[in-house]
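Margin note from the TA: students keep mixing up input and output lines. Inputs are the sequences; the output is the structure of the whole complex. Example:
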Amino acid sequence: MSSIKYFIAVVASSLFFATTASGQALDLRTGQANITGEDEITLEHLFFDNNFYNATIRLNLDGTYQVNQVETLSLTPTAVYQVTFTSTWSQQTHPYEYPVALSHFSGLIGATHNALADFWQLGEVATSGIESMAETGSKSLLITEINTQIDMGNAQHLLSGGGIGSSPGEVKLTFEISQQHPFVTLVSMIAPSPDWFVGVSGLPLIANGQWLEQLVVPLFAYDAGTDSGALYTSPNSDTLPRASIQRIELLPFLVDSEVPSIGTFTFDRID
Ligand SMILES: [Ca+2]
């Protein structure tokens, strides 16, 4: 297996930029692969020698590999996007105990980054920055976590925008993104709530070797797992130890046996 390890090691430094790996289990963050047979991986947006590539690589059980297909990408080094955060969350869409005259969203906060930066994931325990954002709408701890990743080279731009003062409503934020940091993480607290939020984590804005012209992402309510309240206006009840981040599929977001989205992020490329 030595040549496979060598291959993974060579590729690993490029994986941080890859937006997808398919065909078999390959962890973009570690470069570790579980090779169980003649596996083919398609890697999009790999970075070698100052160029970006899509590649299809076959890994064989005997430890050899072949690069079957390589496509050089010709996308611009940077792009500019406007994201529109549209909240549809209202007394009409979510009648159960809807917090009339109180419903709003905290200011957008996030970053552009590569695959090494990871600010939150479904099923993982929230950081202090995510806890603070989800419980109070405060940005400061999360900004510290983002700046740490910027200092390490894993994140590039801090994204900080306005909130939605009264839901339903919308707010826009314009940001630059680069090939070396093609992922977006962006969150906002659902308010009032114990520790509920909406957002995206590690969303790539490159697909098929191109900057996306438009991407519409439906938003659902997530429980940060850091406060035990079950209602919009439940009193503070710190959860120790923290539970994992989960999508909320019960009241007040369960409506007629379904869990409809409460809004969208629409990413429009403007430059
Ligand atoms: Ca808490």
